[in-house]
Amino acid sequence: xxxxxxxxxxxxxxxxxxxxxxxxxxxxxxxxxxxxxxxxxxxxxxxxxxxxxxxxxxxxxxxxxxxxxxxxxxxxxxxxxxxxxxxxxxxxxxxxxxxxxxxxxxxxxxxxxxxxxxxxxxxxxxxxxxxxxxxxxxxxxxxxxxxxxxxxxxxxxxxxxxxxxxxxxxxxxxxxxxxxxxxxxxxxxxxxxxxxxxxxxxxxxxxxxxxxxxxxxxxxxxxxxxxxxxxxxxxxxxxxxxxxxxxxx
Length: 249
What we know:
The protein has 249 residues and is α/β, with parallel strands linked by helices. It has one domain (2-208): Rossmann fold, CATH 3.40.50.2000. It is built from eight helices and eight strands, in the order βαβββαβαβααβαβαα. The chain has helices at 16-30, 80-100, 117-127, 141-145, 152-168, 177-185, 213-218, 239-248; strands at 2-6, 34-40, 58-63, 66-71, 106-111, 131-135, 171-174, 194-196. β5 (106-111), α3 and β6 (131-135) form a beta-alpha-beta unit. The longest helix has 21 residues, at 80-100.
């Protein structure tokens, strides 16, 4: 089977989506499938291009044997207008990458950002490609609950785009049971349309090991209990609860 992955983030960028999707692509290849990727020129989390290719609008490369089609975007980090232009520019320019890839059996679309529903729908209509909409976070719910969408019209628009994405997807894949239950009970997505695709780990690389006392000593952590927050720290991630838990402990 041939898969085409559409994601704004992909290595050498760092972050959950980039790491997870590269591992997914490589595992699909090991299982005998064909995979290509359409993504942005690497710019996250620096907010500027770091691939040394200037302002080339399109670059094709191979990463670990997988063809990767990269398109130019408006580089930005943080919030506000710059980040919206970053999302919108990839939603538009990604179509150029889709045109250069082989026609897949399925288009696998990573969300957020929610604007990925635009190129996904166009690919479905123009090229007859069914798409799988992969939900890593429930947007816009997460940012709405954090008070980051004060404008009701904007919130209704985003909720409409979310519903549009689910309605036109062949399948919706989710990473947690709670997201699955929310889609069924609150978003009214048919249960038989939802695929459960939890995050995994490479057990050949990531496994429990003995502590390295010299490394701990070099960080002045010898004899101390270490609690690590390994996730994203952003506006919508509730860091205040981590601080409250730290105080209690």
